[in-house]
Amino acid sequence: MTSAAPTPAYRRLSVEERRSQLLDAALSLFAQRAPEEVSLDDVAEAAGVSRPLVYRYFPGGKQQLYEAALRSAAEELEHCFAEPPEGALTERLSRALDRYLAFVDQHDAGFSALLQGGSVVETSRTTAIVDGVRRAAAQHILDHLAVRDPGLKLRTTVRMWITAVEAASLIWLDEGKEPPLDELRDWLVEQFVVTVAATAGRDPQTAAVVKSALAGETVDGVVGSLARRMLPVIGDAARLL
Predict the structure, then answer these.
(1) What distance in Å separates the CA atoms of residue 123 and residue 12, rounded to the nearest whole number?
(2) Which of 83, 131, 236, 238 is in Cβ range 3.0-4.6 Å of 92 for a Cys bridge?
(3) Angle at Cα 101 formed by Cα 216 and Cα 200, nearest 5°?
(4) Is the dihedral of CA 226, 95, 86, 196 positive or negative?
């Protein structure tokens, strides 16, 4: 007679492991539904635990859990734009956007609820968490540009682009995830190039930054390809002046 397979030994989770488990379950639910549509019972069921256990770790209830989940998502997004200062700037931006857009894709319709507000559980703290993501992303970009003391025009340009990336991500979800992610990524990188180039025409600091960044680009890279596509358009426009 064949003996039954041994039952795996039960392992008690540490405090950090249990907290992480509950946050993962909450993030998964918030990624599918708006926060106000998710109950603590839903989180408990998704994590395979009891409702009292959820309260033990988050005595503030759903508001505390939502803020903790939002902070966890924010930390992940903040790291998306962190890149070693090596290689062409557009290549670094492309890799950063790959991570950012993958996060958007994985969290699907919940991206708006997680990072854009508009929820009944939104507070000044959640707003501050979301704003922190935008500021951290902008700082990473400025670090990539190797600017220690960016002026108003350059700071504004970078923050405008971060806002554009966020808006484009939401539109991408609304449009059924079209165009393909790699096309959206390249489009956003090109928009960054064009945006800083426009500011360079008005700001000496940005002009110096653009000149330095262009020195690291290649003829077959993003900037070269964009220039070849834009030259006929610019030439036609110039003839009208």
Answers:
(1) 35
(2) 83
(3) 40
(4) positive
- At 50, is the secondary structure helix, strand, or coil? coil
In a domain, 88, yes or no: yes
34: left (phi over 0), alpha (psi -120 to 50) or beta: beta
Contact, 143 vs 87, CB < 8 A? no
Query: Which residues span the domain enclosing 144?
Result: 71-235
Residue found by looking up tokens 């408990």 in the block:
44
- Whole-number pLDDT of residue 30: 78
Residue 52 lies in a domain: no
What's the token pair of residue 18?
A: 């249990």
pLDDT recorded at residue 50: 92
Range 181-207 average pLDDT: 96
Give the closest residue to 36 by CA, choosing from 102, 156, 118, 149: 118
Assign 37 a pLDDT band (cuts: 50, 70, 90).
confident
Residue 212: both structure tokens together: 């330095």
For 115-163, what is each residue's pLDDT tens digit?
Answer: 555 444 556 777 788 888 889 999 999 999 998 899 999 999 999 999 9
Query: What total number of domains does the chain contain?
Result: 1
Q: What are phi and psi of 93, to 5 degrees?
A: -65, -40
Q: Show the CA angle centred on residue 102, arms to residues 100 and 105, nearest 5°.
A: 115
Q: Band the pLDDT of 8: cuts 50, 70, 90.
A: very low
